[in-house]
Amino acid sequence: MTATVLAVDVGGTKFAAALVDADGSIRARATVPTPSTRDAGVVADALRGLVDKVASHSAAGELSSVGIGSAGPVDPVAGTVSPVNIPAWRDFDLVGAVGRSVPDRPIVLAGDGHCMALGEYWRGGFTTRAMLGIVVSTGIGGGLVINGRIFTGPTGNAGHIGHMSVDVAGELCPCGGRGCVETLASGPAMVRWALAHGWLEGHPCDARGLAHDARAGHPVAEEAFARAADALATAIVSAAALIDLDDVVIGGGVAAAGDVLFLPLRKAIDARAGLGFVRRTRVHASPLGADAGLLGAAALALDAAPSAELLRPPTSMDYQTKG
Ligand SMILES: [Zn+2]
Question: Staple partner for 7: which of 47, 173, 269, 294, CB 3.0–4.6 Å?
Answer without folding.
Answer: 294
